[in-house]
Amino acid sequence: MTQPVGVRVFRLQMASLIVLYTVLVYGGIFLLTRALLLDSVHNQAASYASLVLDTRSWNASHGGVWVFKSSDSPSNPYLTQLGVSPDIHAQDGTTLTLRDHATMTREISEVSSTQGRVWFHLTSLDYINPANSPDSWERTALERIQKGEANVAGVSSDGGVRAYRLAAALTVDAGCLKCHSAQGYELGDNRGAVTISVAMRDTDAQMRLTGVALTGFGGLTLALSLLALSYLTSKMQQRIEEANMQLAHAAITDALTGSLNRGATLARLAEEFERARREKQPLSVIMLDLDNFKRINDTYGHATGDCALREFVESVKASVRAYDIVGRIGGEEFLIVSPGADSHTAYGLALRVLDGIRSSPLVCKVGLTITASAGVAEMTPTEESIDTLMGRADAALYRAKDNGRDRVETA
User: Fold this and answer.
1) Residue 26's pLDDT is what?
2) Which among 138, 272, 311, 332 is annotated as catalytic?
3) pLDDT at 401
4) Is the dihedral of CA 161, 166, 172, 175 positive or negative?
5) Could you tell me if residue 7 is inside a domain?
6) What domain count does the chain have?
7) Which of these, 143, 179, 237, 330, has the minimum number of CB atoms within 10 Å of its CB?
8) What is the Cα–Cα distance from 392 to 390, expressed in whole angstroms?
9) How crowded is the C-beta side of 87, counted as CA atoms within 13 Å?
10) Secondary structure in 3-state letters for 48-75
11) What percent of the chain has pLDDT over 70?
C-alpha cells in the first residue's frame, strides 16, 4: 500500500519524536543511575575519610600508641628527626615502639588495600616521609585545598587501578603540636590531606550492566513503539482512504436515489461523447421523466415521492446494461447514457426500462404504480456538443409527454 506524502511525513515526524523521546528517557535514566552510583561511592569514601580523621585525632590526642617492636613493626625513623624518641624499653626487656597517627594510618591502609577495595594515603606538599609525597592528582587536590576547599573528589587512576578518590584536608590540632611544634605549625594550619581511594571495579561493572540493560529495554521500547506507530498509521491511512472514497462517492452521487448526480452524469456523457467521436462508435442518450410526479407528491406527500424516485432508479438500473450510465439531472428527470448503442438499440432499451417501471408497483405505497416517459437521441457525425445531443433527447421526451405519457419517442 503506497502511503500519501502527508502520511509519510507524519510517520517520519512521529518516528523521530519517538526515537528522541526514547533516547532522552533512557539516557536520562542512565545518567541518573550513574550519578547515584557515584554518589554512593562518594559517600563511602567520605565515611572512610571521617573514620580515618577520627582515628588520627584519637591517636594524636593520646600522643600515639605503643606497640611491641618487631620486624613487622619497626621504629619510625622520622620521629627522631622531629625530636621524639620512637622506642622505650620495658622492665621485662621487651621494646615498645611508638605508632604516631601518620604511621598508624599508613599501616591500617596497607591492611585495607590488600583487599583491593579501599586504601588511604597521607600526603602533603611539605612532606617529611617520602612515602607521603603526592602523585599528580593529589598535588592538584592539595593546591585546591590550600585555596580553601575542604574536600576534593574525582575519578582517576591510583596505582594503575581506576578509583574514586577523595582528598580530605588535614588541619593542625593540639595533638599535632606535640610532634610538629618545632616546625612552626599553628592550630588550624593546613597540614596536607588524607586521600581515600575506593576501587571503581564493582561500580564500573554496575554501570556497564545498567548501560546494557537500559540499551536493551530502550531498543525494545523503541521497536514496540515504532511497530505501534506503523500499525496506527496504517489504520489511519486506511480510514483516510475510506473517508476519501466516501467523499469521492458523495461528490458524484445523488444523495436521494444513489444514482450519479448531475455533474457526474454530464462529465461521463462528455467522456463517452469524445470517445465515440474519436472511435467513430455510436452513442445514444435516453431522457427519462416520471409521469405525474407532482401529483404523487401532492397526494401522498414528499416522503412517498422520495420513495418513488428511489424505487424508480432501482428499476431503471435493473433494466439497463452493465455499462450504461444512469444519472439524475434534476427533479424527477433522469438521463441514461448508452455507449455503443444506435437509436434502434436505445429505443428497445428505453421500452424495456418503461416496461420495468410499469410492472413494478411501489413497495413503499401498496397499490400505487408509476410510469415514465422517454426521449431517445443518437449522436450524429456532425453533433457539435453534448448540449445539442441532450436537447434533441429532451425534445423527444416532451413529445412523449404530449402524446400521452408512458411511451418512447426518438429524436
Assistant:
1) 94
2) 332
3) 96
4) negative
5) no
6) 1
7) 330
8) 5
9) 13
10) HHHHHHHHHHHHHHCCCEEEECCCCCCC
11) 93
User: In degrees rounded to 5, what are phi and psi of residue 294?
Assistant: -60, -35
Of 56-65, 159-168, 199-208, least confident by mean pLDDT is: 56-65
The answer to the question of residue 293 being in a domain is yes
Query: pLDDT at residue 60 above 70?
Result: yes
CA distance linking residue 265 with residue 219, whole number of Å: 56
> Residue with C-alpha cell 580515618?
52
Collapse the DSSP code of 109 into the 3-class scheme (helix H, G, I; strand E, B; otherwise coil) and give the result.
helix
Question: Which cell is 121 given?
Answer: 594515603
Does 372 fall in a domain?
yes
378 is known as an active-site residue:
no
Hey, which residues does 199 pair with through a beta bridge? 163
The closest alpha carbon to 378, from 335, 354, 409, 346, belongs to 346
* pLDDT of 61 strictly over 70: yes
Band (pLDDT 50/70/90 cuts) for residue 178 is low
Q: Which three three-digit cell numbers place residue 94?
A: 621487651
Residue 386 domain flag: yes
| CATH number, position 365 | 3.30.70.270
Beta bridge partners of 379: none
* Domain of 393, in residue numbers: 262-410
Percent of the chain residues topping a pLDDT of 90: 60
Cα 330 from chain centroid?
52
Instruction: Burial-class residue 248 by CB neighbours within 10 Å (0-12, 13-18, 19+).
Output: exposed
